[in-house]
Design goal:
Tyrosyl-Transfer RNA Synthetase, globular, mainly alpha, 2 domains, two-stranded parallel ribbon, 336 residues, 16 helices, Rossmann fold
Length: 336
């Protein structure tokens, strides 16, 4: 994959939506960090706080969630080299300007086919304009910073298809190609089972494994994971064991293989497996990682300095693109 990713600009957006948990890490943060560490490549991380406002109801502090998300990304290993970037969506009014230009060249029929909109209609719930036009702002997110590669799961492919459709209409409408046509980097985004052993990990179901909670709380949650009635001596199927599936989502290959073999051989109880899961979790998210995360949250000056550096870069890219569009649309007549 590294050869494929060199010499390109990747953009990944993540919504800040409260306390981070293992599902957030596996689905978005882990691949983002891997992309950031590839040489000869720019990786831009967009903290999509405006998109959080599209939710039906907001049950968390957005500003705290923004700082938590960015602190977590850095503590977990995002490479803060100069060629990368971390941008907070609401700091860039150019995104809303581009959103408006894109909106001129897209029909409502396309937006009515969006998955989120159709789901709301089927549920007979009110649809806000922000939810309805969500794909247009997402297209602006993807294109404004000049990204040409976008990591997506197969269930997110429609977002990139919409962006491509919008760009084609936009470029045709203004008679000029301003943005590169982004290509998808399809990646496996496994559904992480929650601590109830039944549903997908979700804050709304209160079945999460929080990344940076105190070790005692993590250990208590892991000890409460549901299991079947098999005895310690009996062999067990790893792929039917929620403890193993949680470990498999984040731990090293050696640790995963070790637990798999022990479960299949027998004489290895669920209590042992839970203890091994806890140790692996602490090795990944505890120690210096948790310490760094808590320091960035408590003393955010390091975050502020880093974001200011990246913000200057982000505005330079955004302003250049917006200026080019304004000239194409003849909107600069009275600018001084």
């Amino acid at each position: 994959m590294e050869a494929q990713l060199k010499s390109c600009r990747i953009l990944t957006g993540v919504k800040p939506t409260g306390d981070l948990h293992l599902g957030n890490y596996v689905g978005a943060i882990k691949p983002l960090i891997k992309f950031s560490q590839v040489s000869q490549q720019e990786t831009f991380f967009l903290c999509a706080d405006w998109h959080s406002l599209a939710a039906k109801e907001i049950t968390f502090s957005i500003s705290d969630s923004v700082s938590s998300l960015i602190a977590a990304v850095i503590a977990l290993g995002f490479d803060t080299k100069e060629s990368n970037g971390i941008f907070i969506q609401s700091h860039y009014p150019q995104l809303l300007e581009l959103y408006w230009y894109f909106a001129r060249f897209i029909n409502t029929g396309l937006l009515e086919r969006a998955h989120a909109y159709k789901a709301s209609v089927q549920e007979n719930t009110p649809v806000s304009l922000s939810l309805f036009s969500y794909p247009v702002l997402m297209a602006a997110d993807i294109t404004l910073f000049g990204s040409n590669k976008v990591p997506v799961g197969k269930d997110q492919a429609q977002h990139l298809e919409y962006t491509s459709d919008i760009l084609k209409s936009f470029h045709y409408g203004i008679g000029k190609e301003i943005f590169p046509m982004p290509e998808a980097i399809f990646q496996e985004t496994p559904e992480i089972l929650g601590t109830d052993g039944i549903h997908k990990m979700s804050k709304s179901r209160n079945n999460t494994l929080p990344l940076f909670a105190e070790p005692k709380k993590i250990e208590k949650i892991i000890k409460s994971l549901p299991t079947d009635s098999k005895t310690m001596e009996e062999p067990k199927d790893p792929l039917k064991t929620s403890i193993f599936l949680l470990l498999k989502s984040f731990a090293s290959e050696d640790r995963v293989n070790d637990m798999s073999q022990k479960l299949q051989q027998g004489n290895y109880g669920y209590g042992h497996a839970k203890q091994d899961l806890f140790f692996a979790f602490e090795d990944t998210f505890g120690g210096e990682v948790r310490k760094r995360y808590l320091e960035l949250k408590k003393y955010p000056e390091d975050l502020r300095i880093l974001l200011q550096k990246y913000e200057q870069k982000g505005h330079e890219i955004a302003n250049q693109k917006i200026q080019e569009i304004r000239e194409s649309l003849d909107l600069n007549a009275f600018l001084f």
